[in-house]
Amino acid sequence: MLQGAIGGAWAFAATAGARASVPSSFPIDTWMALASVPGASWAMLGRAGLTTGVTGYAKAGETRATTDTLFEAASLSKPVLASAIHDLARERLIDLDEPIARHVDFTSDPATRTVTPRHLLSHSSGLPNWRTDAGSALVSRFKPGAAFRYSGEGFVLLGRLAEAVTGRTAAETVRSRVLAPAGMSSSTYGWRAMNNPAVAWPHDAGGDVMPDRGPEAFRRAQQAGPASPVEAWTQDDRIAMAKRLGKPALPIFMMPNMAAGLWTTAEDYARFLRFARRYPAMNTPTIAVEGNLKWGLGWGLEMAGTGRFAWHWGANDGVANLFMLDLNTGDGLVVLTNGAGGQRVYERAARVYFKREFDAFTWLQP
Q1: Nearest by Cα to 272 from 222, 321, 338, 227
Q2: Using an 8 Å Cβ cutoff, are 52 and 66 in contact?
Q3: Smallest Cα–Cα separation from 165: which of 175, 173, 153, 156?
Q4: Of 91, 260, 310, 315, which has the fewest beta carbons less than 10 angstroms from its beta carbon?
Q5: What pLDDT score does 5 carry?
């Protein structure tokens, strides 16, 4: 699964679902200490199967992390929703080139009403990442399809499209079309108050717990919403929840947030990467980003020479995640961290795992 010294260290555990301690040739504990990251969970996909591991704390100085600890996926949620959209397109419930406004009345701007699922999947709609001001309109900054502009709002809109064509909530649609068939039995967009799972708390750049984020933010939102399961909340439920919390009725303040609201494990997410192979359209280079970087229909692509990689990062407050997938070999790496410095950890892990540099990391630098 891995080459050289790292491959030898992991060979004994390279079976489906295997769990192992941290090998000396993959010193993630050292990287975490340098970056003040309390906890990390990872999964490795390769010819020998799926290997997972975890180290550190779910809550610094209090609760150890395990392979069952749920981490905030943050924007790693987006490719999961994208797969569900492709499944709906496969059944012809969605046309990737049909304007979304024919199903969801989300804007009065004529140019923005031409936005299609293809534009949203490739982040070429021109829509903003997130609005935070009450009354702000959802308007494309340029002609849809003309350029790259990362948009969380765009993926929330994809969720609303899924609801319009299926009559079910987006979270229910993703569960039935992706989470369940992929074997992602631990992944969820929310849990009932009486059934609190082990979850990772976010931590700031110094490694201190952010007590009002992560699980606590979920709890507050859950209490402001209806008693029904979060995955069953309708758009009206989400709007009412935001208003009860004194927030504008904008996607960033609603839950579940289909662009960033999945809770998962590294093992589950690796299962998703294996499952997503059935949607090769996600690997279609659709819009140029910069240099060797392009965006496909659901995730980022780095293509240099014969190398072909799919990737995505995730960043919520105090959370930093990454997956990197070699499209030629099927080898993949998932790293989930609960620290603001997690980017430094997952970048190092990917460089060691794949034995190469990635343009994506330079592009991601603040």
Answers
A1: 321
A2: no
A3: 173
A4: 91
A5: 26
Number of residues that make up the chain: 366
| pLDDT at residue 188 greater than cutoff 80 | yes
- Give strand ranges (E) for the chain: 18-19, 39-46, 49-59, 63-64, 71-72, 263-264, 287-290, 293-295, 300-304, 307-314, 320-326, 332-337
What is the β-pairing status of strands 49-59 and 18-19? parallel
Supply 332's token pair.
């993949």
For residue 299, the cross-strand partners are none
Q: What is the pLDDT of residue 194?
A: 56
**Helix/strand/coil for 344:** helix
Using 50, 70 and 90 to split pLDDT, how confident is the model at 366?
A: low
The number of C-alpha atoms within 13 Å of 158 and in the hemisphere containing its C-beta is 39
Both tokens of 178, joined, read 């992706």
- If one counts every other C-beta atom within 10 angstroms of the C-beta of residue 235, the result is 16
The identity of residue 317, as a single letter, is D
Q: Which ranges of the chain would DSSP assign to H, the alpha helix?
A: 4-10, 28-35, 77-90, 117-121, 152-166, 170-174, 180-182, 215-224, 235-244, 266-275, 342-354, 359-364
C-alpha distances out from residue 313 to 79, 90, 97, 317, 333, Å: 10, 26, 26, 13, 12
This prediction's pTM = 0.93
Q: Which residues pair with 44 in a beta bridge?
A: 51, 333
Sign of the dihedral defined by the CA atoms of residues 256, 193, 180, 338, in that order: positive
Contact 44, 336 (CB under 8 A): no
Give per-residue burial for 162-201: e unless 16+ CB within 10 Å, then b: bbbbbebbbbbbbbebbbeebebebbbbbbeeeeeeebbb
| pLDDT tens-digit map of 108-124 | 999 999 999 999 999 99
pLDDT at 10 over 50: no
Greatest Cα pair distance in the chain: 59
Instruction: Compute, in degrees rounded to 10, the torsion defined by CA atoms 68, 176, 196, 70.
Output: 30
